[in-house]
Amino acid sequence: MPRAEAASVSHLVRPLVQLARARGASLDEPDESITPSDLGRLFDAVAEALGEPHLGLTLPGTLSFTRYELPELAARSSATLREGLQRLVRYAPLLNDGVQFALEEEGGLARFIHRTPGHPRGVSRHLNEFAMAMAVHSCRSQTGRAPAVREVRFLNPRPGGSLEALRACFGTAALRFGHVENTLTFDAEILDAPQATHDPRLLATAEGLAASALERRGPQRDTFAARVAEKVREALDGHEPSIRAVARALRMSTRTLQRRLEAEGTSYAQVLDQVREALARALVAAPAPSLSEVAFQLGFAEFATFSRAFKRWTGSAPGAFRDGQP
User: Fold this and answer.
1) Is residue 326 predicted with pLDDT exceeding 70?
2) Angle 19-20-23 (CA atoms, 0-180°, nearest 5)?
3) Using CA atoms, how far apart are residues 12 and 124, in angstroms rounded to an integer?
């Protein structure tokens, strides 16, 4: 059963299609209210039409936006890069329901994180690359300095062919693939850099409007499938958690759990598979634990069963996937 997705307005749709048309591609313009999966397909279609193997890297500074949304206005008009990113994280739900941002700092390093809830592999490799490249571009354009990037992690598997375009864009060879979220890791000291776009009056207006809009939306509740996935992750410890055990942990009957998942267009088997896939990608990409230990942790009775599932998820055997990590 296909996963039910809510559509929301994306300000990327119109400039992306206009760019493609300006370069000679023939594309119908979809509605700006679009599901995450359809937005990913649009990125893939434009990349194919333009023959751009790394479309997402070329878009920052190329796309022509006729307006900025409230979260972007609040971020751009902030005094420092840190304040701007914090406001972007806070007001991201106003940009798109299918996107989450986070900013973490630890040990002199900062991590800008891009998540796509419900899509453990992201919705498009090109969109993953665009999210990370846009963060670098915004930092450079608003502070006049390029961040010292230490590592970039992507949700998608390693793309075929040369990685030179990615290395050139981010200024690092530390590129990791098949992770649970897109992450740009850089030296945190640049977060204190002042932004050339700082505007106290615009900030007061934009933040006031953004805060009001966020409040009107009410609390953003996770989907029921996300709650089930969390219980599955907690129970994955050397055995496959049964639907009955997860239902009991959520204090409901098995049938109620099934009905609520069906209402969101998914099933317990799909949720279990998605959780296993996300964890498997992260664990296999790391140098430890051993592959047999990964299979055990994810509740597979036999390594061969795990290997077949992993190849279905990624197109590669676990060993080949691990060996392919930089």
Assistant:
1) no
2) 90
3) 14
